[in-house]
UniProtKB/TrEMBL annotation:
Domain called Glycosyl hydrolase family 32 C-terminal: residue spans: 514-563
Protein name: Fructan beta-fructosidase
SMART domains noted in UniProt: Glyco_32 (SM00640)
Homology family: Belongs to the glycosyl hydrolase 32 family.
Key words, A-Z: Glycosidase, Hydrolase
BP GO terms, sorted: sucrose catabolic process
A single GO cellular-component term on record: cytoplasm
Length: 575
């Protein structure tokens, strides 16, 4: 192919060619809008490679590896469907070659040095799935629309405000990332946080005869007032923006929608002006205010009913984006808090939680008809995830991770109702080699060192501590400190980004009952700590370090039960 230069003002420009050599080298600059300012290679009607201008005025070298399609007819497609700032793309020096201009040596996908092996992370940018030579961060932030449908757990998360990434699992442990569910409707309008439901009874009418049920996603545009809908009729594989968007124009955002089975209505929780507003609907598309609001609240709400363990009663839990939650009653109109606002998790990297309602919660006397997919008379199992906001992964093709799925239960304590969270039992399927040490008394001044070379661990132990005793477990340079009534974590920071940034992050979570059982999950770049079956927890991102475990007592002796360290397998294939 001869050289070609182009600067399209607005529109597409297509050139046919035969892939006679394995590499297509070129230079490109301009906007960094996926599918909007880019150069594509199209084979058999499908875009197989794409590259944007990366928001730079200086052309950079790029290479498409076309080995897979040697000898086939193709089209080179230059796309400029953007205007305004960076609303252009320029391409030059397009040459088919036997050698690539840009050569990038990449480790196998999911085997990168800092890739978490027990936690979900985004694969990479969508455009770079179509250009494996290039490396870019696979970003994720707020979790959206966790929904269980037809045997699959669906995980959605924002990629900034451009699209919802999408992954599925049938066991909560192993994940398959699909193509992004949907992108913003048009350049700059945005697609922000929200939720997803399954319209089993087709109340929306979005499913035609023989179709569905519809998966219906709710989200906000960048203007923080336009509430919109996208829907899927094929189990979440393809999505359509609702033609009537926006369905509401309110100065709010982060729509969280759920089915209130007791009153046969849909309920929406919207965030704005430091409070949540409640709305109702019969058909998911037309909403009316309940004239009920919840003050002292903070974005990304999650609202659900939980049965009280050991009781025939239930309560509602309202979880705020910053991890605070409160327990109370909900009559279909008003939420009345019965507890102070409490912290779900005391760790430094725990934010914007969402949860699944799935079969398996067990029988409950007051379960409303159709409360869960498991059938009448049972409560849904409530499974929570959080965005582990703030972790650092330099030079990696991904950025940010998601916490381990945790079962939520409502427990009665001496201080009233509390929500417990502990790792789902499915995590045990990753167990490989088990090491145990018998019970012992650990005295101050005599550290106990346990050599471990495997980076993926689950550590469990029962501890009995006097009021003046302190037990410290150190792993990956992270200190976990346990007292009779609290757990705390101290994580060293990587190289500070500024002179006034702290070199370590400390966090603490109190307990109501005496700390007894400890459950610690260690991944490549994270540590999660659980005490007393989920009464308290700490979630923290860490930097890889020595996996030797050291236990130290201070103050007075610490009595330890059997210590178990289990090596875990990766959740990713071929790792």
């Amino acid at each position: 192919m001869t050289d070609l230069s182009a600067d399209v003002v607005v529109g597409d420009f297509t050139v046919p060619f035969v892939i006679s050599r394995p590499y297509l080298n070129f230079r490109i600059c301009g906007g960094d809008y996926e599918y909007k300012t880019c150069l594509n290679v199209v084979v058999n009607g499908q875009v197989v490679r794409t590259e944007t201008g990366r928001a730079t005025e200086r052309p950079h070298a790029a290479t498409f590896d076309l080995t897979e399609w040697l000898g086939q007819d193709a089209h080179l497609e230059l796309v400029d469907e953007a205007d305004g700032e960076w609303g252009y793309v320029r391409v030059s020096d397009i040459v088919l070659s036997s050698t690539p201009t840009v050569v990038t040596v990449k480790p196998p996908l999911y085997a990168e040095a800092l890739r978490p092996q027990l936690h979900f992370t985004a694969r990479q940018w969508a455009m770079h799935r179509l250009n494996p030579v290039e490396r870019e961060e696979g970003w994720l932030n707020d979790l959206n629309g966790l929904v269980f449908h037809d045997g699959e757990y669906h995980l959605f998360a924002q990629r900034w405000n451009k699209c919802w990434i999408h992954a599925i699992s049938n066991d909560l442990v192993h994940w398959t990332e699909l193509e992004p569910a949907f992108f913003e409707e048009s350049l700059g309008t945005g697609v922000q946080s929200g939720s997803c439901v399954v319209d089993v009874d087709n109340t929306s009418g979005l499913a035609g005869p023989g179709e569905g049920p519809a998966m219906v996603a709710f989200w906000s545009r960048n203007d923080n007032r336009s509430q919109c809908v996208s829907y899927s009729l094929d189990r979440g594989r393809t999505w359509t923006h609702y033609a009537g968007n926006p369905i509401m124009d309110l100065p709010e955002r982060d729509p969280m929608v759920f089915r209130d089975h007791r009153r046969a209505q849909w309920v929406m929780v919207l965030y704005g002006d430091d409070r949540y507003q409640l709305l109702r609907s019969d058909d998911l598309l037309h909403w009316e205010s309940l004239n009920s609001s919840i003050s002292n609240s903070f974005e990304c709400p999650d609202f659900f009913e939980l049965g009280i363990a050991g009781s025939d009663e239930s309560r509602w839990a309202l979880v705020r984006g910053d991890g605070r939650y409160s327990i109370g009653t909900f009559d279909g109109h008003t939420f009345v808090e019965e507890t102070p606002q409490l912290q779900v998790d005391g760790g430094p990297h725990f934010y914007a939680t969402q949860s699944w309602a799935a079969p398996g919660g067990g029988p409950h006397l007051h379960a409303p008809q159709g409360w869960a997919a498991a059938g009448d008379g049972t409560t849904p199992r409530r499974i929570q995830l959080a965005w582990m906001r703030g972790g650092r992964y330099p030079n990696m093709p991904f950025n940010q991770q998601v916490s381990i799925p945790c079962d939520l239960t409502l427990q009665q304590t001496p201080d009233g109702l509390r929500m417990y969270r502990q790792p789902v039992p499915e995590l045990q399927t990753l167990s490989r080699t088990r090491h145990t040490w018998p019970a012992r008394v650990l005295s101050p001044g005599t550290p106990w060192q346990i050599g471990t070379a495997w980076p993926l661990l689950r550590i469990t132990c029962n501890a009995t501590l006097a009021p003046n005793a302190e037990l410290t477990l150190t792993i990956c340079g992270t200190q976990i400190t346990v007292t009779s009534n609290s757990i705390a974590i101290l994580t060293p920071e990587p190289t500070p980004m500024s002179a006034d940034q702290p070199t370590a992050t400390a966090a603490k979570q109190p307990t109501i009952t005496a700390v007894g059982k400890l459950d610690i999950v260690v991944d490549t770049t994270s540590v999660e700590v659980f005490a007393n079956g989920g009464e308290a927890s700490l979630t923290a991102c860490v930097q890889p370090g020595h996996y030797e475990l050291t236990l130290t007592a201070s103050g007075t002796d610490c009595s330890l039960g059997e210590l178990e360290v289990v090596e875990l397998a990766s959740i990713w294939p071929a790792v």
